[in-house]
């Protein structure tokens, strides 16, 4: 009897082992072994885990080694860390950093090499998903999409500019989705039909274009000597929000001043696309810290769960025009063609004058350091009080070489850490929280079965060391595994 029981137990054990095996057939897939997978949502680390990629999707994640059949590459990630690919939710991929239209036409070879490198530069620093928040040249989005190796790219449909406002101060500008605001004291040119430029018509067109968000602007301008640009009324902003949401679009609004953030916080827009660095007449008090009036505006945004993009590198990127050593940073060689770097070096003084005129560099640098400090203290206040912070860089933000693609995101992370933001929060902002904010969480943000196979294999733990984002072993984008060194601009130059 004992012998029979022993045989039955042996057979049952075999059956149990057989049924516990995971068998997966893949075509052009990956098997990543022995990885430590980090969850951005709860910062847990799953040790010695396995990830199977089938095509451009994740087919399996678990601690049990699967039986994989078919055509696949095996990657041993022992001692390494897997995180979801990073998301930069505020880029502009249609311009050559700091070059005017005329300069682009005069330097076609430099522009061509830059455009060829651009998608790789974002991937070099782990950005596998980008959201272009507005472009005056949408055809260049198609150029970006034609690259064989590239991040996933989403867009906002050209921008819903307020008629005669910021971004459309000249009616000859070809921006079809401008919004006519009845209460502004200017006539719409006869060639336009008002009904085609209502919030409803514009939102419908933007949604039909395949965009995921509608972007508009609250920007009275930067020159106090000039009349302010028209800005949206409360009624218009409410209508825009209603029409955007009817079309399943996220409402993103440009704004960086105290006036803009107060208005947009009260309007309960989904996302403000810049930090609050323009404080008007208020100053940072070294004794009492952030002014109470600034706190009140940030509190409104926190209460109404408005998404807040700090975009710290906007200020820093402009400041770099004052730094004669900036263009010697060796990291630039990985994201910019050498010809473009040399062009910047030869024309850096002219570029400075084009932006700042004859203002002394030391004064400009001091002023921008002050603005940068405001951005950081706002960010820390938002974090300490439960604000909805999102990761976006506005790359490139303005006519400066100080916002290099990909590298600018890493610099933004360094600034966030120096502002006192925990590494766990930085990881979450650049992955799952961005994905949720733009309704992309079914595809991105975590390492889970069924999601896009956009992954980073890191040599360091990003929950312990911010430099992990500059120590990437491999980038997986749409299921394709790429050694990081193969993405460097130095390869193209050699």
TrEMBL record:
<dbReference type="GO" id="GO:0016810">
    <property type="term" value="F:hydrolase activity, acting on carbon-nitrogen (but not peptide) bonds"/>
</dbReference>
<dbReference type="InterPro" id="IPR032466">
    <property type="entry name" value="Metal_Hydrolase"/>
</dbReference>
<dbReference type="Pfam" id="PF01979">
    <property type="entry name" value="Amidohydro_1"/>
</dbReference>
<dbReference type="InterPro" id="IPR006680">
    <property type="entry name" value="Amidohydro-rel"/>
</dbReference>
<dbReference type="InterPro" id="IPR051781">
    <property type="entry name" value="Metallo-dep_Hydrolase"/>
</dbReference>
<protein>
    <recommendedName>
        <fullName>Amidohydrolase-related domain-containing protein</fullName>
    </recommendedName>
</protein>
<feature type="domain" description="Amidohydrolase-related">
    <location>
        <begin position="81"/>
        <end position="480"/>
    </location>
</feature>
<dbReference type="InterPro" id="IPR011059">
    <property type="entry name" value="Metal-dep_hydrolase_composite"/>
</dbReference>
